[in-house]
Amino acid sequence: MHKYLTYLGCILSGISSILVLVPFLCIWKVAYEILKVLPNAAAARNLEQYGWIAVGFSVVGIVVYFAALMCTHIAAFRTARNMRSEALHHILRLPLGYFDANGTGKLRRIIDESSGQTETFLAHMLPDLTGALVTPVAMLVLLMVFDFRMGLISLIPIVIGAFFLNAMMGANMVESMREYQNALEDMNNEAVEYIRGIPVVKTFGQTVFSFKNFHEAILRYKKWAVNYTISLRIPMCNFTVAINSVFALLIPAGILLIASAANPQKFLSDFIFYCIFTPIITVVMNKIMFTSENLMLARDAAARINSILEEQILEQPVGNAGRFCTGSDIEFHDVTFSYPGTERIAVEHVSLRIKEGSTAALVGPSGGGKTTAASLIPRFFDIDQGSITIGGIDVRTIPTEELMNKISFVFQNTKLFKMSLFENIRFSRPEATREQVMKAAKAAQCEEIFEKMPDGIDTVVGSKGTYLSGGEAQRIALARAILKDAPIVLLDEATAFADPENEYKIQQAFEVLTKDKTVLMIAHRLSTIQHADQILVMENGKIQEKGTHAELLEKAGLYHRMWNEYQMSVAWKVKEGKGKVK
């Protein structure tokens, strides 16, 4: 139905563009009637009648155009709503890893602003474009009816202007619009990430380096805007001159042609009509230019929304096989995975088993595939080859809700919502009582945090300058995981931002969180995983070594080398007063 409202709006806009041309004919008739009886202008007839006809058609044209906009607005609002709804519903079914590759600033801009651009185009620009296309046809008829010679002369600037307009709005312009939107997305995304990172920037005293990515995004946009403006400088000037140069041709032509006119009065009235009517050429050509640009933006916006809708959703299992998954042991069977859009293999032929109730640690050089391997367990991405099972059941056959209920996460970058600390903790288990939340918070060593907050556990994070340090935020995240009480726990560099005091408290919270759980830890601080039941050493996406801490030291391989380097880094001390490294 709303599609037909758009069609109706465009038709009404076309009719309106014809109706508003009628007053120009009335002006011509008034000029002709006056010129016929000069110098006795008072003897001219029907002037009042033509005046009312002009007013009537103008009012009707405005009313019809208003009706056209009503139709297109109703359709545009529904279209924009559907675009946002479809994109958001689709995003909810995408793998969680998709959001690591696409920043929130970028996604917000695509969904919000792209649908907004489409709405603006459908509501305003599309009916205007229809009118701008119908008007030249009506103009062409009127220009040829009165005096085809002056009509042809009036068309010369239109042809020249169309040539320069095509030069600006050709295939290169489509690519430029795409680059423009990409530059805005990058700048928007970097701005969001920079603002979110301000607490960390201040904590570590960073200055220009923290601003680097955002600054580079601004410079890329500046470079594009300057180059684009310079490239359009000449054709835009030529286009503007052309569509405004009708009088430069029309007036000399009128002076030359009036001398040979059989009926000077009629010729003069025709000439007056062309002088009054041809300025519409400038308005129409400008309208075509701006609506063509907005058409490109709308097409690009629709393509960006489609790029989200075309992302492969996380396939949900058919049947109830996964609902009978009662165990919590984890096993990788010859798992291989590459990130979408890349050829590099992130995890290659990995096989491992973590027994139920045991603790395993993933260590290795940065970029070795540790975090990627762990993220495959909760299906942040689906693997390319092999299988991952929990309790003997392939994770791809376990419904997403059931799978999430079996796993607790504590990530390196903890996300706290702008709500009370109480609600932040209870987020993992909405039905939990206040007593249960307080018990989990106590186990995570959070009582000290509440004591210094103005409203204790009910303090809203981010309000009135209330923020938590990295270590404190990690303890809130641990309380959230303890409250969830899932049988499997994934810890990814959970002590990365903790100072020594917070690290000690986090280690105490780990003991409560991991008791009788199947645990997979990712750590660079090797001291935190010495007592793990097994240590898996990953490098270049492969398991290079596995065993206990003692067994791996005896092998004198990669882990032994990493351990020695870690011990050396711990032993470094700055001599007091000398500033030398020992």
TrEMBL record:
InterPro entries: AAA+_ATPase, ABC1_TM_dom, ABC1_TM_sf, ABC_transporter-like_ATP-bd, ABC_transporter-like_CS, P-loop_NTPase, Type_1_exporter. GO terms for molecular function: ABC-type oligopeptide transporter activity; ATP binding; ATP hydrolysis activity. Residues 8-260 form the ABC transmembrane type-1 domain. Residues 330-565 form the ABC transporter domain. It comes from the Bacteria. Keywords: ATP-binding, Coiled coil, Membrane, Nucleotide-binding, Transmembrane, Transmembrane helix, Transport. One of its GO terms (cellular component) is plasma membrane. It is found in: Cell membrane. Its main location: membrane. Residues 170-197 form a coiled coil. The chain crosses the membrane at residues 7-30, 50-76, 129-146, 152-171, 239-259, 271-290. It is a multi-pass membrane protein. PANTHER family: ATP-BINDING CASSETTE SUB-FAMILY B MEMBER 10, MITOCHONDRIAL, ATP-DEPENDENT PERMEASE MDL1, MITOCHONDRIAL. This is ABC transporter ATP-binding protein. It comes from Aminipila luticellarii.
